[in-house]
């Protein structure tokens, strides 16, 4: 009888040890995966900031400012609010090169911020639930920065001269 109790006690301890080992290995795997994701996402952010160092300042002249007729969907809340705003494309012309050899580039789509470079539109307003408010915001942007002939400072990447922005990653 006594041997049986000792045997049962050893089995319980073995099961507890196996359960502890499973929990510890699961927690370790979770922590390693989290560290991997943080490193990967951190490299993505650092890559964007490093790309921001490549931009040079130039003067841009607005050639054309048009609404494409396309409405872009935006999220104005966590998961409950979606709205739209009109797509505004502002094309500018810059001069690239030194004062001795100036090359005029074709009009290029400029983006409002460095982080909008992949977008097909120049400006995406802070999204509000009322589409009229979004439209007014885009219209105000067009009237201040999108008037034909307006001379503004912009930033471009000399390695990719068709990549233009009105701000860089280094600006606040």
TrEMBL record:
One BP term from GO: detection of calcium ion
GO CC terms, sorted: voltage-gated potassium channel complex
A GO molecular-function descriptor: calcium-activated potassium channel activity
Annotated membrane topology: Multi-pass membrane protein
Principal subcellular localisation of the protein: membrane
TM stretches of this protein: 21-43
Source organism superkingdom: Eukaryota
Record localization: Membrane
Ranges in coiled-coil conformation: none
UniProt keyword annotations, A-Z: Glycoprotein, Ion channel, Ion transport, Membrane, Transmembrane, Transmembrane helix, Transport
The protein's name: Uncharacterized protein
Organism: Desmophyllum pertusum
Source organism phylogeny: Eukaryota, Metazoa, Cnidaria, Anthozoa, Hexacorallia
């Amino acid at each position: 009888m006594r041997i049986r109790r000792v045997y049962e006690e050893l089995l319980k301890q073995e099961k507890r040890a196996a359960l502890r080992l499973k929990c510890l290995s699961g927690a370790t795997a979770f922590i390693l995966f989290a560290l991997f994701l943080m490193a990967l996402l951190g490299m993505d952010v650092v890559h964007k900031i490093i790309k921001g160092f490549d931009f040079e300042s130039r003067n841009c002249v607005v050639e054309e400012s048009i609404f494409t007729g396309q409405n872009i969907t935006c999220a104005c809340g966590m998961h409950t609010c979606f709205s739209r705003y009109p797509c505004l494309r502002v094309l500018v012309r810059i001069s690239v090169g030194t004062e001795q050899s100036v090359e005029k580039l074709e009009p290029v789509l400029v983006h409002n911020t460095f982080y909008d470079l992949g977008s097909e539109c120049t400006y995406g307003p802070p999204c509000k639930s009322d589409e009229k408010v979004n439209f007014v915001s885009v219209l105000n942007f067009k009237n201040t920065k999108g008037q034909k002939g307006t001379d503004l400072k912009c930033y471009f990447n000399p390695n990719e001269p068709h990549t233009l922005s009105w701000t860089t990653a280094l600006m606040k």
